[in-house]
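Retro notes, item 3 of 5
We never archived the inputs for the thymidine-5'-diphosphate complex last cycle. Fixing that now. Sequence and ligand:
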Amino acid sequence: MNGSGLFLTFEGIDGSGKSTQARLLADTLRAEGHEVVLTREPGGSPGAEEIRRLVLEGDPDRWSAETEILLFTAARRDHLERTIAPALAAGKVVICDRFADSTRMYQGLSRGDLRRLVDQLHGLMIGREPDLTLLIDMDPDTGLSRAKGRKGTEERFEDFGPELQRRMRAGFLALAEEFSGRFRVIDGNREISAVASDVAEMARKALLQPTS
Ligand code: ADP
Ligand code: TYD
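Structure as it came back at the time:
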């Protein structure tokens, strides 16, 4: 499913500023003449948005860990087939707020060590990594208070609390080392505009390189 566009993802803990930065980067790249598709996970296609409601709303114990991996992967497969792959094939820049690295972290680490299962299913059903992943790293308590500030019903994971946020932060940093070729770590504990300027610089560099 590799196309000729650029596939760029944002990762990081809840409240780290991913959605804000994804939106700003889309505006910047569009202003520079690129065709950009801004999307998010879980979701990003009509079917995947339906699955989003199933996984993000309701009781934290609603799904077993294994069922949850299947649901996130099903949503991703639909998103890839219907939104991401066609856009990349048309040469567009796809900016995605979270992707498979979030499943490696949240489903792979939060309820026992299920990372192998996540990777196996990813290999079978998705088989595509981003060209560039921007990890917005930040203090877990600040992230949680920012995320809690947005009132809503999508709280299944935020309900897990500060301990999970801390483990996710450490996990994301370890993942950035594991996949050091495509990851860049950005300090998110700064003003929005300072973070955005680093983000834009890294994206522009990636746009100059040939993609796989
Ligand atoms: P995420 O998508 O990672 O959960 P958001 O982009 O939704 O994060 O940001 C969460 C909240 O924090 C929003 O209210 C946003 O306006 C605010 N925010 C984002 N980046 C910063 C920043 N660098 N400094 C202060 N507040 C920020
Ligand atoms: P998101 O809307 O990006 O939340 P936030 O803006 O707070 O970061 O994602 C919602 C939640 O979904 C988030 O807590 C992380 C979780 N999630 C997973 O557990 N696995 C996944 O594969 C993805 C994409 C998200």
